[in-house]
């Protein structure tokens, strides 16, 4: 039997987001599959899930502008949403010296402003459902270590981590939980390790899903404000 409220997953048309959408839907969680450029992949995923008699819906949203984010929110604002998985995050493998202002603007728009606007707009539904927020970070954020490659990208992830913790404290009295999952090197990810990994393998999408499943479980409703690394000892 399906639950009544949706889980929104941003960036869910392919890769990790699509895997999470598929697994959650197969666990009888209704899923809203956000997509931008990968319409075909999003609808293919949703069609497969519907054929399996699962509840899924694809929703377009262009997060590169405030207008695009607001138009996306308008499409789903009347839905009952119990959880948001903020998976969208543009990667920029440039140093500070190589980064143009336009690059920086886009990073802030997609990696920080989109989660801010979406969470704020869907707060009434999250309050009603005593919902859960999950943000995708990167391993090593707690060390506040300076990066010279992908420096501005890492900075936006640091901002997102602090935002997650702020929401955990501000929204606790609404019984809304806010946590982050920070992978190390994932299979099929943009950046791959140059040397040997401590556990001799990259992380899998299933590794991430297991933590998502744990955080969404109502039995774990006292865990909030945490950045959980799923990194196999990378960056320790």
CATH 4th-level superfamily: NAD(P)-binding Rossmann-like Domain
Number of domains: 1
The number of distinct helices, counting runs of at least 4 residues, comes to 7
Oligomer: single chain
Round the mean pLDDT to the nearest integer and report it.
92
List low-pLDDT spans: none
Whole-angstrom Rg: 17 Å
Going across the biggest sheet, name each strand in turn.
3-2-1-4-5-6-7
CATH arch. level architecture: 3-Layer(aba) Sandwich
List the main descriptive attributes of the protein structure presented here.
236 residues; 7-stranded parallel beta sheet; Rossmann fold; alpha/beta; 7 helices; 15% strand
Polypeptide structure, described:
With 236 residues, the chain is of the alpha/beta class. It has one domain (6-230): Rossmann fold, CATH 3.40.50. The protein has helices spanning 15-26, 39-51, 66-76, 101-121, 123-129, 151-170, 205-216; strands at 6-9, 31-35, 56-60, 81-86, 132-136, 177-183, 227-230. A 7-stranded parallel sheet has the order 3-2-1-4-5-6-7, sandwiched between helices. Helix 6 links the parallel strand 5 and strand 6 (177-183). Helix 1 crosses helix 7, helix 3 (66-76) runs parallel beside helix 4 (101-121) and helix 4 runs parallel beside helix 6. It starts with 5 loop residues before the first strand and ends in a 6-residue tail after the last strand.
Could you give a short description of this structure?
By secondary structure, the chain is α/β, with parallel strands linked by helices. Helices cover 41% and strands 15% of the residues.
């Amino acid at each position: 039997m399906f639950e009544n409220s949706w889980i929104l997953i941003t960036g869910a048309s392919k890769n990790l987001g699509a895997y999470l959408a598929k697994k959650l839907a197969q666990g009888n969680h209704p899923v809203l599959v956000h997509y931008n450029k990968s319409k075909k992949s999003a609808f293919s995923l949703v069609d497969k899930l519907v054929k399996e008699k699962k509840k899924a819906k694809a929703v377009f949203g262009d997060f590169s502008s405030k207008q695009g984010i607001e138009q996306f929110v308008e499409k789903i604002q009347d839905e009952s949403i119990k959880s948001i998985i903020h998976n969208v995050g543009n990667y920029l493998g440039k140093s500070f010296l190589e980064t143009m202002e336009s690059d920086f603007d886009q990073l802030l728009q997609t990696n920080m402003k989109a989660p801010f606007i979406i969470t704020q707009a869907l707060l009434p539904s999250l309050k009603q459902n005593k919902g859960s927020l999950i943000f995708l970070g990167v391993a090593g954020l707690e060390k506040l270590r300076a990066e010279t490659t992908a420096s501005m990208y890492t900075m936006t992830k640091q901002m997102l981590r602090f935002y997650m913790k702020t929401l955990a404290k501000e929204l606790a009295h609404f019984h809304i939980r806010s946590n982050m999952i920070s992978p190390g090197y994932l299979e099929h990810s943009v950046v791959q390790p140059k040397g040997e990994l401590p556990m001799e393998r990259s992380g899998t999408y299933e590794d991430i899903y297991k933590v998502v499943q744990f955080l969404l479980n109502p039995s774990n409703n006292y865990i909030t404000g945490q950045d959980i690394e799923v990194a196999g000892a990378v960056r320790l």
